[in-house]
Write a structure and sequence with these properties.
Layout: E1 21-23, E2 26-37, E3 40-49, E4 55-61, E5 84-88, H1 100-120, E6 122-132, H2 134-144, E7 165-169, H3 185-191, H4 199-204, E8 217-221, H5 232-243, E9 248-251, H6 267-281
Parallel strand pairs: 4-5, 4-6, 6-7, 7-8, 8-9
Antiparallel strand pairs: 1-2, 2-3, 3-5
């Protein structure tokens, strides 16, 4: 394992031979450590198709306004489609400011692909990043800017974080400021400053600012009735990606609110679209 600065460590992966639970043909490994930081150990839960052999991988990032949420919010289903899924911890904004959370998503992606993949039966060359709300922001930021120096985990140069696909639900993709010039407290806590105090940081932390023609294929879902994150965040992101020639799949249901993609009546359409998208982009 790599030598890293004091307070950081890359844990050895387990053999993935004894799952904590087997459910409907899915092997579940809970609480697997993937990154040691000065603020504590970060863990992930890994869902593997039984007898996984060179299966693609989805890395899921939970929401919670960067200040809350848990990896257990993930609703398992990918393993049933022949796709490994990891749902991960990251440092919340009350513990560490930006870009710590982005670096943690990068650390998880790198660890899974570089160290865990052989034992887990995962093909590291077929990976998607996926997230809800604030998690969509973090996953989308890494997906659009995998080579950004400031997003590298501390002590790891050139991490293996370039992915084949991105899925975002009710995401935040642009911190261009509100009409009244005020920075909402939850965003100020995440960045550790207001937009007027550090505009370059807000731009760097906006996925839309990193869009170019090399970005991965993208599937975004956002309800038009979202009163937490306006759906123009996703519409503007979609338009920028399309302008750069990046393939984009969009679902923008009229009456849907915030992160209700897995509730009726939107669940079936979302699942079907996600399945088709991943099948195409991860070569299932």
């Amino acid at each position: 394992m790599p030598s890293r600065p004091e307070g950081y460590e890359t844990p050895e992966p387990p053999a993935f031979e004894e799952p904590d639970e087997v459910r409907d043909g899915t092997e579940i490994f809970r609480g697997v450590p993937f990154e040691e930081t000065p603020d504590g150990t970060l863990h992930l839960d890994l869902y593997l198709p039984a007898d996984a052999d060179s299966v693609p991988l989805v890395v899921h990032v939970h929401g919670g306004a960067w200040q809350g949420g848990e990896r257990t919010w993930y609703q398992p289903w990918h393993a049933g489609q022949g796709i490994a899924a990891a749902t991960i911890d990251y440092r919340l904004s009350g513990t560490a400011e930006y870009p710590a959370a982005v670096r943690d998503v990068a650390a998880a992606t790198h660890w899974l692909r570089t160290y865990a993949a052989p034992a887990a039966g995962v093909d590291p060359e077929r990976t998607a990043l996926r997230g809800n709300s604030a998690g969509a922001h973090l996953a989308g930021l890494l997906a659009m800017a995998p080579n950004e120096d400031n997003f590298e985990p501390v002590g790891i140069d050139d991490p293996d974080t370039e992915v084949d696909a991105f899925i975002g639900v009710s995401g935040i993709y642009n911190f261009d400021g509100d009409d009244d010039g005020e920075t909402p407290p939850v965003i100020e806590q995440f960045f550790g400053c207001t937009r007027s105090e550090c505009p370059d940081t807000f731009d760097e932390g906006s996925p839309i600012q990193h869009v170019d023609g090399d970005d991965p294929a993208t599937f975004v879902w956002h309800g038009q009735a979202d009163d937490a994150v306006p759906d123009d965040q996703t519409i503007d992101f979609r338009d920028e990606l399309r302008d750069e020639g990046v393939p984009v799949t969009v679902l923008n249901p009229e009456e849907a609110g915030h992160v209700v993609n897995l509730e009726d009546p939107w669940r079936e359409e979302f699942r079907t679209t996600e399945r088709e998208f991943l099948s195409d982009e991860l070569d299932l």
